[in-house]
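Worked example 2:
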Amino acid sequence: MAVSGFDPDGWTPCVGETLACWDLRVESRAAAAPRALTRTTLRRWRIDDDEGAADIILMVDELVSNAVVHGHGPVRLRLSISGPRIRGEVTDASPALPEPGRPDHDSETGRGLLLVTALADEFGVMPGGYGKIVWFTHVLAAPREREQRRQA
């Protein structure tokens, strides 16, 4: 069983049966690590692409990228699973609320939050003690359907 919480050095990462969380490095290429961490966690939870793993990884990627580019301070990723529902949360120290972009046809940026709102079952922002938490939920296929796919 993984342990998480606060220790003398600060926040401690964890990976468990229903919860995974990490402090992330704030740098321009920071999204690669969260994608890998999310992919590994979803595999551990036995969630595959048929159930939306690729969409969950993409939403994490977009929210972490936004936190790195538009937020500041420590960026944290938290994933949890409860029944068929996955919840992803990205926290940063900026209190500024994210706003979906209005990109033109040729723009290479500004679509991240639009993409998240399209893929998520729920999406929101809430104050996070020292900044904000941007979150999404994704509901997996029904447990019976999941089990049938695994047995096939």
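The two ends are 30 Å apart (CA to CA). The first helix runs from residue 32 to 44.
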